[in-house]
Amino acid sequence: MSKIVALVPLLPLLGFLINGLLRKQLSKTAAGIIGSGTVLGAFIISVLLFIDVRNGKTGVVEFFPFISFDTVKIPFAFLVDQLTAIYLLIITGVGFLIHVYSTAYMHDEEAPHFARYFAYLNLFVFSMLLLVLGANYVIMFIGWEGVGLCSYLLIGYWFKNPQYNNAAKKAFVMNRIGDLGFLLAVFWLLAKLSTVTYGEVFSADAIKALSQTDITIITLLFFVAATGKSAQIPLYTWLPDAMAGPTPVSALIHAATMVTAGIYLVARTNILFSMAETTQHVIAWIGVATALLAATIAVKQNDIKKVLAYSTVSQLGYMFLALGMGAYTAAVFHVMTHAFFKALLFLGSGSVIHAMGGEQDIRKMGGLAKHMKITYFTFLIGCLAIAGVPMFSGFFSKDAILLSAYEHNKIIWGIALLVAALTTFYMFRLLFLTFKGSFRGTEEQQHHLHESPRAMTIPLIILGVLSIVGGYISVPEVFVAGGDKLGQFLAPIIPLHTHAVSHMEEYALMGGTTLLVAIVIVFAWNKYKTYKEETNGAFGNLLENKWYVDELYNTIIVKPINWLAGFIENVLERSGIDAIVNGVGRAVQYSSRQLRLLQSGQVGSYVLLMIAGMVLLFVLQFFLKK
Amino acid sequence: MIAVLLFLVPLISGILLFATKNAQQAKMLALLAAIATLVVSLLGLTALKQPAYLEFDVAWLTGINSRFHLKLDGIGQLVCLLTAISFPLIILSAWNNEYSKPNNFFGLLLLSQAGLMGVFLSVDLLLFYFFWELALIPVYFLCSGWGGEKRIAVTFKFFIYTFVGSLIMLVGIIALYFQCNETFDLKIILSQKIDPQVQNWLFWFFFVAFAIKMPVWPFHTWQPDTYEQSPTPVTMVLSGIMVKMGLFAVIRWVAPVFSSAFYQWGDTISLLCIVGMLYASVVAIKQDDLKRLIAYSSIAHIGLMCLALFASNKSGMQGAVLQMFVHGINIIGLWIVANTIEQNYGTRKISELGGLAQQAPTLTIMLVIIALANIALPLTNAFVGEFMMFNGMLSSKITRYNELDTVLAGLCIILAAVYTLNMIKQVFYGAVKREAVGNNAFTMPVKLALTVIIVLILVMGVYPKPFLDLTNEAVDAVLNRMITVK
User: Fold this and answer.
1) Of the candidates B262, B277, B300, which is a domain's last residue?
2) Which of residues 335-394 of A touch B (CB under 8 A)?
3) B145·A65 Cβ contact <8 A
4) ipTM > 0.90 for the complex
């Protein structure tokens, strides 16, 4: 593996530096070209690396020592292998499309802010690449916190709005809770093994040196980290709020790439996770619970981006459910297809918002299909893909997850099936309310309805194509023997996994799921082909208000900490310790005055001199007038 | 040569400064002297790093066996470098401030630098004590003469605190002197075997003095008040360098001399540090004054360093030593920004500020970078030290509750993000709340100082190796000495 791999993250870093430092000088066109061009460059190199990896050329490239002490050596090193190669393609490929899209979407921004936007976006790509390229957990952590920072900067991109800033802060702090888990896991590894380099941690000797408790603790801590970054219970509430950022950011960071970092972490560490049964159970149940919770909320949201945000949380839950079942390849597969169709859906929603002049409420849309054919058609593809309609990419990846759930735990499988139905329902509700029926916005909006410019529609079309064909890299073995190309490709990192389900059962499962999806689509069509004002029952209200989880966190965490801070500040600091210390000060002063009379001998007179000297110096300052 | 120059250059130029006639002259001389000291320090790290240059030993108080003995090891080199880098930055940042009697002001500032250098250089206990006081006395004058409106009361509190500490230490020094056959020499003290029973109580005479200086909870209440009321350059000296005297002294005089007590009391002190870290982090959330916010944030950071020292292993101690340097640089950056804001907008109250990102974009970017270093984001300088300290803490074989300690201290990582981002949000983002008043204080010297700090933040964050190499042997020496005792 040659050092050329360094260029992959360095190009976006260069873009960040140019756009960031020259943001006042650069024209919008120049900033856009630099921003997109550097990512395109990274994509091209990633393709070359991918070809190398397919030819069996994987390996570690070391650059310089980063942190070393005792016997611990943590180098700045990259690892390019199968898992990294796939992530590289997703990040730079989808990233490039979203950069291009942004040049049109953000065009109303003033030039310095336009360049600032691209600088942040490039910095994000750089951090994300670092995350997947790192050859040890510390380099991964650099990227891990780096993407959190970029997410923070981009959510708060329109920094004049205090609500957006709150959302940005919330995202950062909740991610930091997870990050603490990451750090603790790393320290635990270091304490036991004195190394955090993947190759060494996963070696047979190292694994032998870890007790079962160690493995459980390490994997649980890593999972805590994953719940933060990948928005799982209990740390998911930042992601819907993160929709405050510009829509392309939601597509890239909060749907396609950053939020899947948790899945990368677990898949990368699969050797340890497979040995920790307790952790596996926790992951599976948290995953399926998150999938269900978020799906129920999505059903009642009216903000086009909020629906997609909860959908993302829910789909991430799906991926964790797969990880919990040990179906790492299925999870990575779903990361990939989800990156295509969710980026597509978000960019499509951006196209809609663009046409609607900033409106995001689907109750005020309707009938847009007539005006925006490309957006509608690609959005439809996205919906079919996420619903898991046969022949679309989501079908294959979802099927793989459902199959492994069926194999391991029928209850989880049942819930996952329910989530699939809910997903189909809220996505087609979204589709029909937005694009079908009659227009419900203002006349002025109707007058301005238009298809978006080509810089936006071409990425939509490309992602649309990928949302269809992306699934064919892992066709179930029942259809084509040896069709699971992805599984074979990843086999060096993730051991191949054969299903213990008969072919008949597998066909029945697929058929059943497909039938369910079809019924739900028809149901949604009947319900939403013409818009009717909805009134919520008590349960509907509960869903619309997101199960009041934010309010709950506020009551049990935020408020008590604030109260404690106030108590310390007003009571302890002012009257408690300080008063005692002041008292001690006075007492010491008093007693020293008394004591010095009693002193005798050499030591005593020295102390006396000290006191006298100090007091004298202190008195002097009154005469040293300013 | 190097050793004595590090102390003599600021001392002589400090005295000379009292004789200067006008502000311009005083500032210029002060800056030149500070840069000269920096050059000396850099020479000691590069061209003149042979041991002969780094040691200076002459007779001093022969009657009581005390020698004027200065010696630089790797740890000393790093803190002396911190002192040497900090003063030019501090003087630059004060370039446009108006002080009455500027000659006295800058003269006292340099005298305290001389004292600080002495503390980091001396390997004779009595000489160490002499410098300890020499560093503090100019600061008393500076606080009481040039401070805010409550300066007299606050300086008095500061004085009482440190004075009590010094007094207790002096008693300890005298006791140790007789324990060790009447010597003040570090090397000879280290060759003696001090009864563990004696260590257990003698330890506290030193540790309390150093704990007040750091400060360790609950000896911290002088700090927010003093930082708030002191003129900003003095606050920078206090928080950037002077609090490191306490940590440094623990490494040089407590850990190797009272090793068995150091192990013995490790859990007790860890508890104090953790309570203090959480306490300071939580109370920082409520602060409305920028200076007080930074003060509490600093208490939490110093608590972490002290905690890491008591882990008694390489990772913890070397991390703490590195962090002493890093914290000094970063906090000076924070003070510069806070001071600029106060001068430009006429207030330090967070609730009265807002929208500075629109008014002062460059200042905002600089502050955000420094603030990110303050919360130890990877690729900033603070990450490396913090990583090593936490790692040391978890893998400690000395403290009994190392796992719990690490988790509790880890909560401060989260809380730091809360109060730091709160501050950024309130002060820099949102709607503009007030217009700039008076002359723009964000001048060339200030920008220069901040740029140097940011370069240090990033370079050390990406390539910390030279700094780790520098302290490697010295930390090993301390730890080896501790292990032999055990």
Assistant:
1) B262
2) none
3) no
4) yes
The CA distance from B86 to the nearest CA of chain A, in Å, is: 25
The Cα of A264 is separated from the nearest Cα of chain B by a number of Å equal to 19
Lookup: tokens for A117: 């936007």
Same domain, A166 and A204: yes
Select from A486, A514, A544 the last residue of a domain. Answer: A544
pLDDT in tens, chain B (486 residues): 888 899 999 999 999 998 888 888 899 999 999 999 999 999 989 888 888 888 888 888 888 888 899 999 999 999 999 999 999 999 999 888 888 888 899 999 999 999 999 999 999 999 999 999 888 889 988 988 888 888 888 888 888 788 888 889 999 998 999 888 888 988 888 888 888 888 889 999 999 999 998 888 888 888 888 888 889 999 999 999 999 999 999 999 999 999 999 998 999 999 999 999 999 999 999 899 999 999 999 999 999 999 999 999 999 999 999 999 999 999 999 999 999 999 899 888 999 998 888 888 899 999 999 999 999 999 999 999 999 999 999 999 888 899 999 999 999 999 999 999 999 999 999 888 888 887 788 889 999 999 999 999 999 999 999 999 999 999 999 999 888 765
Same domain flag for B228 and B308 = no
Q: Which residues on A lie below 8 Å from B166 (Cβ)? A: 610
Whether the CB-CB separation of B427 and B345 falls below 8 Å is answered with no
Domain count, chain A: 3
The count of domains in chain B is 2
Residue of B nearest to A567 (CA): B283
Collect all residues of chain A within an 8 Å Cβ-Cβ radius of residue B379.
Answer: 142, 146
The CA distance from A165 to the nearest CA of chain B, in Å, is: 6
Do A142 and A79 fall within a single domain? no
- Contact call for A191 and B429, based on CB within 8 A: no
Domain range spanning residue B224?
1-262
Go through B62-83 and write b for each residue having 16 or more CB atoms within 10 A of its CB, e for each that does not. Answer: eeebbbbbbbbbbbbbbbbbbb
* Interchain pair B390, A183: CB under 8 A: yes
Q: Are residues A600 and A538 in the same domain?
A: no
* Count of all residues that appear for chain B in the document: 486
Q: Do A475 and A582 lie in a common domain?
A: no
Q: Do A568 and B141 touch (CB under 8 A)?
A: no
Same domain, A572 and A442: no
Residue A92 sits in the same domain as residue A158: no
- Provide the number of CB pairs (under 8 Å) joining chain A to chain B: 162
**Are B249 and B279 members of one domain?**
no
User: At which of B246, B262, B278 does a domain end?
Assistant: B262
Start-to-end CA span in chain B (Å)? 36
User: By CA distance, what is A604's nearest residue in B?
Assistant: B171
Cβ atoms of residues A449 and A368 within 8 Å: yes
Nearest to A169 among B279, B411, B425 (CB): B425
Q: What distance in Å separates the CA atoms of residue A163 and residue A178, rounded to the nearest whole number? A: 23
Judgement on whether residues A385 and A446 belong to the same structural domain of the protein: yes
CB contact under 8 A, A617 and B137: yes
Do the chains contact at A568 and B104, CB–CB below 8 Å? no
Task: Please check whether residue A184 touches B, CB under 8 A.
Answer: yes
Say yes or no: B173 and B279 in one domain: no
Q: Do B285 and B258 fall within a single domain?
A: no
| Separation CA A271–CA B225 (nearest Å) | 53
CA A149 to chain centre: 12
Nearest to A423 by CA among A273, A549, A311, A562: A311
Strands B55-61 and B66-71 come out as antiparallel
Residues B116 and B22 both lie in one domain: yes
Closest residue in chain A to residue B472, using alpha carbons only: A69
Give yes or no: residues B60 and B75 share one domain.
yes
| A311 and A197 co-located in one domain | yes
- Angle at which helix B402-428 crosses helix B361-374, to 10 degrees, equals 170
Same domain, B229 and B352: no
Instruction: Specify whether the CB–CB gap between B333 and B460 falls below 8 A.
Output: no
Q: Give the best residue of A581, A588, A610 to mutate against chain B (max B CB count within 10 A).
A: A581
Give the residue numbers spanning the domain of A515: 136-496+503-544
For residue B330, give Cα distances in angstroms to A160, B374, B375, B423: 27, 7, 11, 16
Residue B145 has its nearest CB partner, among A69, A562, A621, at: A621
Please check whether residues B10 and B54 belong to one and the same domain.
yes
